[in-house]
Amino acid sequence: MPNNRSTARGQHHVPIMLQDAFATSGSGKKRQVHVFDKHEGRTFRTSPENILRERDFNTFQDGETIYCLEEGMGKIEHAAAPAFRKLIAHRTLMCLEESERAAILVFAALQRIRGVHTRTSMLDVAEKIRGRLRENGDDPDAVPQLRDSDDPEAIKLSALMLIGKGMPDFLRSYTNKVMVLMEAVPGETFLLGDTPVVLANQRDTFPYGNLGLEVKGIEIYLPISPELTIAFWCPSIVEMIENALRMCEDSIRRASAVALLGIGPDADKLRELQPQLKAKAEMLQRDLSAIRDGRPLVNARENMEYVNSLQVSFAERYILSSTGDFALPRRMIAENSGYRRGHRWQLA
Question: For the chain, what is the domain count?
Answer without folding.
Answer: 1
